[in-house]
Amino acid sequence: VNVLLVHAHHEPRSFCSALADRAQAALSAAGHQVVRSDLYAMGWDPVSDRRNFTSVKDAAFLKQQQEELFASERGGFAPDVEAELRKLEACDALLLSFPLWWFGLPAVLKGWIDRVFAMGRVYGGPKLYENGVGRSRVRALAIPTTGGPEVAYSGWGFNPPLEAILAPIQHGTFWFNGMLPLEPFVAWSPVRVSAEQREQYLHALDARVARLFEEAPIRLPKLGEFPNLGLDAKQRFLAVVRRARPVDDAYRARVPEELAHLAALKRDGVVLRIDAAPPADPQWRVFLTLRAGSRAEAEEALRGLPLAAWLAWELTELAPFALPPAR
Ligand SMILES: Cc1cc2nc3c(=O)[nH]c(=O)nc-3n(C[C@H](O)[C@H](O)[C@H](O)COP(=O)(O)OP(=O)(O)OC[C@H]3O[C@@H](n4cnc5c(N)ncnc54)[C@H](O)[C@@H]3O)c2cc1C
Predict the structure, then answer these.
(1) Which band of pLDDT confidence, cut at 50, 70 and 90, is reported for residue 124?
(2) How far does the centroid of ligand 1 lie from the alpha carbon of residue 145, in Å?
(3) H runs (alpha helix) in 131-227
(4) How many other C-beta atoms lie within 10 A of the C-beta of residue 101?
(5) Measured from the CA of 106, which atom of ligand 1 is nearest?
(6) Which residue's CA is the nearest one to ligand 1's atom 39?
(7) Residue 69 contacts residue 118 (beta carbons within 8 Å)
(8) Could you give the CA distance from residue 6 to residue 88 in angstroms, rounded to a whole number?
């Protein structure tokens, strides 16, 4: 199958470039057709303006999306954009490899998206989310390197959570266009970790790309679940979960399964958030925010937990916050 690897690092001997080389080698060895757009090596121009087009709809006022629609009808994209569009349209998987810069993409890669993901040809009209160009089939993997450590991006560190930082890519670019986002492959702080840890990252990437077409993607909400493009038709619940029976060996044996199950519920968009009381709290509880079609569906998700027989829960429906009306 066809894989498009878009790489955005200015130093070919960087660790980020080593990851891109490794992914390319592993995928090629597995028999896939890998096309690599090495943006710095290509001298990719990230500036989005009239140079995106050979056609002109309105010479007096530049409105990018209108020009994109016009160019889509007439084959009016500039040769550099057209070449990338064809690679994008032909791929079964899209990989983006880049260093995290200013909590985002390096400009060269942001500019590749700004210019290539064109309205008409790539998105727009009915082509959005589950009906997007990726047809809920094209797999998409972000491979960032960072300066900061994992804890800083964990949701309890000094930076925003990584999930929030990568939302413009995972949700705003991949899933917006109907591509299935996979769990990102992050090489945390390659500058600071040991040579052994860097070697481990490279091996872990081999394992990830080997299962590129098998692993379960992250399920983000479908556009059809938001009637008239408004609020979520699904409900949200807060489940306060506590232990109702003493911990025993059978409980302990199931803990890894419980953790894997919770991670799968999060990946599938059933669990939106997990918090817990501190371990020393005698009233130890877990707080799960669930997204479900009904209370019964939320109950079913809780009953499916591997440790359900040891647990009891209270389920409260949530609503968008608003102050109660003044009397
Ligand atoms: C403009 C800018 C903005 C930034 N913003 C952020 C930000 O918002 N958040 C953040 O966390 N960080 C930020 N950073 C830091 C940046 O994300 C990291 O410096 C970068 O991701 C590190 O990856 P690298 O590939 O460039 O590391 P490198 O320095 O290239 O590599 C690290 C080490 O790996 C070694 N190496 C190379 N190849 C191999 C190999 N094949 N095997 C084993 N070792 C190898 C190298 O020799 C080096 O010792 C920013 C940096 C810049 C320049």
Answers:
(1) very high
(2) 6
(3) 162-165, 167-169, 195-210
(4) 16
(5) 1
(6) 15
(7) no
(8) 10
CA angle (108 as vertex; 107, 109 as ends), nearest 5: 90
- Say how far apart CA 98 and CA 228 lie, in whole Å: 36
pLDDT band at 300 (very low <50, low <70, confident <90, very high): very high
Instruction: Please choose, from the candidates 219, 232, 143, 144, the residue with its C-alpha nearest in 3D space to the C-alpha of residue 178.
Output: 219
Are 173 and 94 within 8 A, CB to CB? no
Helices and strands, counts by H and E, the chain: 10, 9
- The answer to whether 114 and 172 have CB atoms below 8 angstroms apart is no
Angle at 252 between CA 246 and CA 257, to 5 degrees: 125
Q: How far is the CA of 218 from the centre of ligand 1 (A)?
A: 26
Quick count: other Cβ atoms within 10 Å of Cβ 68? 25
Residues 3-54: tens digit of each pLDDT: 999 999 999 999 999 999 999 999 999 999 999 999 999 999 999 999 999 9
Q: Which residues of 14-26 are buried (b: 16+ CB within 10 A; e: fewer)?
A: ebbbbbbbbbbeb
Q: What contacts 299, CB < 8 A, 6 or more positions away?
A: 315
Residues with C-beta less than 6 Å from any ligand 1 atom? 11, 13-16, 18, 99-103, 145-148, 190-191, 198
Structure tokens at 288: 């799960």
Alpha-carbon distances, residue 58 vs 7, 116, 118, 267 (angstroms): 34, 20, 17, 44
**Cα 191 to ligand 1 centroid, rounded to whole Å:** 6
Its pTM surpasses 0.90: yes
Length of the chain: 327
